[in-house]
Design the sequence.
């Protein structure tokens, strides 16, 4: 469990890694998108705490990166899933943006390219896995191949149905190799999604973010809920659990993911790597130089 500052303990009734973890009773249909599970502070409290916890996250990430520079192959992989406007891009900017970018491996998975379609669906995922000592971030992921593919019937059911076992085996392989997998499902309400899309239309500086297909996808919201429920039911494992985050309040979802990353990094029990040179000799040489 992540160590918390006094302020964190005062504002979280239950740690994020505990209260947001999916269980056998998790029902997508019953998510209250505007709630802040486990956190009873206000928006201003959350924003202030995010800055504080960002410093903790940054320090832990530096330790991870330092160990990677000395050959440690361990890493953390943050998987972000959610429909458009759920906050995946903002998560990268406002959470991952708090750490040193040289220690981050970021990959975004959209519609497969011609080359990617010629390979197994996990091929492009394997090529983007984080290197040792890095935090890897997947903006969308291998789960597109059991979500979008299923909703739009892009391949027969027997094809995507078999992928759940493949994905579980793939993630077990990652964990056994030293990667902590943090899978986050961000859920935004239809009303909030409409408001965010409207903002993209109203503001010229956000037109580049608008995709007409996003409005089309709104017509498939019931099918996506069913698909996400199936994903959580079939791939929520002890070694790579899902964390379900209501995302109508961006400040909360960003704070929650920050706490999840801190928890993941602290589980690695990192220390600074030992010097591979004689420190006292080097001090003397430096003084004499």
Sequence:
């Amino acid at each position: 469990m992540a160590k918390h500052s006094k302020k964190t303990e005062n504002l979280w009734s239950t740690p994020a890694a505990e209260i947001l973890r999916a269980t056998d009773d998790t029902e997508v249909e019953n998510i209250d998108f505007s709630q802040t599970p486990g956190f009873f502070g206000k928006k201003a409290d959350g924003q202030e705490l995010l800055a504080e916890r960002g410093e903790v996250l940054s320090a832990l990430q530096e330790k991870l990166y330092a160990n990677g520079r000395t050959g440690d192959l361990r890493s953390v992989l943050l998987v972000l899933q959610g429909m458009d406007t759920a906050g995946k891009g903002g998560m990268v900017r406002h959470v991952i943006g708090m750490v040193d970018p040289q220690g981050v491996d970021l990959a975004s998975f959209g519609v497969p390219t011609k080359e990617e379609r010629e390979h197994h669906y996990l091929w492009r995922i394997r090529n983007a896995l984080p290197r040792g000592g890095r935090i890897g971030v997947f903006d969308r992921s291998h789960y597109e191949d059991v979500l979008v593919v299923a909703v739009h019937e892009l391949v027969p059911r027997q094809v995507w149905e078999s992928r759940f076992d493949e994905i579980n085996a793939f993630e077990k392989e990652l964990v056994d190799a030293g990667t902590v997998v943090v899978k986050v499902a961000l859920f935004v309400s239809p009303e909030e999604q409409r408001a965010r899309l409207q903002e993209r239309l109203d503001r010229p500086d956000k037109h580049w973010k608008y995709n007409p297909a996003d409005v089309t996808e709104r017509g498939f919201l019931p099918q996506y809920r069913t698909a996400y429920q199936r994903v959580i039911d079939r791939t929520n494992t002890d070694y790579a659990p899902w964390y379900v985050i209501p995302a109508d309040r961006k400040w909360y979802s960003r704070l929650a993911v920050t706490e999840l990353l801190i928890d993941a990094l602290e589980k690695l029990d990192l220390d600074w790597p030992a010097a591979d040179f004689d420190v006292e000799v080097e001090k003397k040489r430096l003084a004499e130089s």
